[in-house]
Design brief:
265 residues; alpha+beta; 3 helices
Length: 265
């Protein structure tokens, strides 16, 4: 009887952990989709030398065609986002791809007073909360199921396909983009990938200093695996567990041994 109860409790715990890990994967994939689209579309647009007054910032969002990026500027009153360009994933052989974008350009920037302006305000609020930093950061605002914003501030890429991991924060911001409801620091201190791991190996992204803040992987751990090249699975070590993040963003609790390179997290 007791063994049955223990087994049921263990099953319930496993289900709860599986749900947590799936939610982390989903958030990490969304962050990667956002930043990949923003990086690629920005590179394409800037190559055309657009008017810098009209193209001051961007907001990405997921649509039926994939991740779309709206470029423009926020009004002085912070109540309108004027859209000058919209980047849409290009159709290649009948399929939408995230490697190249088609642009819709507006001679007269179109005003948005809802989604885009709220996202822009949320990112500005989070950036002000983070304060002055020694390195550049990339911001992403993604709505959650409650209509609030999850605003991610992650260190910007040093070069194409090289995204540092560490000193990153996720803020939960009110739907109107005016109030921070929660601050979730994902990593303290920078981590560096060990370049000696082969592309077929699972590699640990090792942090120079600091401790794991929680006993689960973070959204940005998944983001980092999906963004960096060459693609390789990574092992995240916490005080009590070891997790493998595969190249599709899925997370599994490691039962056996993995190839782990570098210091523990």
């Amino acid at each position: 009887m007791m063994s049955t109860a223990i087994a049921r409790r263990a099953d319930a715990q496993n289900v709860a952990m599986r749900q947590q890990l799936d939610e982390i994967s989903a958030r990490g994939r969304a962050l990667a989709g956002y930043q990949r689209a923003a990086w690629t579309a920005s590179t394409q647009l800037l190559a055309t030398n657009p008017d810098p007054w009209q193209v001051q910032r961007y907001v990405a969002y997921h649509a039926d065609s994939g991740w779309v990026v709206a470029f423009g500027r926020l009004s002085t009153e912070r109540d309108t986002f004027y859209v000058s360009h919209i980047a849409i994933p290009a159709a290649v052989n009948g399929q939408r791809v995230d490697s190249t974008f088609e642009f819709q350009t507006f001679a007269e920037p179109g005003p948005d007073t809802d989604f885009l302006v709220r996202a822009a305000r949320a990112m500005d609020l989070a950036t002000m909360a983070l304060g002055v930093t020694a390195r550049a950061y990339s911001a992403a605002a993604i709505p959650n199921a409650q209509g609030e914003w999850l605003v991610y501030l992650t260190p910007s890429a040093d070069a194409a396909n090289t995204w540092p991991l560490g000193d990153d924060v996720r803020y939960r911001v009110s739907a109107d983009g005016q109030r921070i409801l929660e601050t979730h620091r994902m990593h303290v201190g920078m981590m560096e990938a060990n370049a000696t791991a082969g592309s077929g190996d699972a590699r640990l992204v090792a942090k120079a200093s600091g401790k794991a803040l929680r006993d689960l992987p973070e959204d940005s751990d998944v983001f980092n695996v999906l963004m960096n090249r060459p693609a390789a699975a990574e092992v995240v070590v916490t005080p009590r567990h070891r997790y493998r993040i595969d190249v599709d963003g899925s997370i599994t609790l490691v039962q056996g041994k993995e190839t782990v390179v570098g210091a523990t997290r």
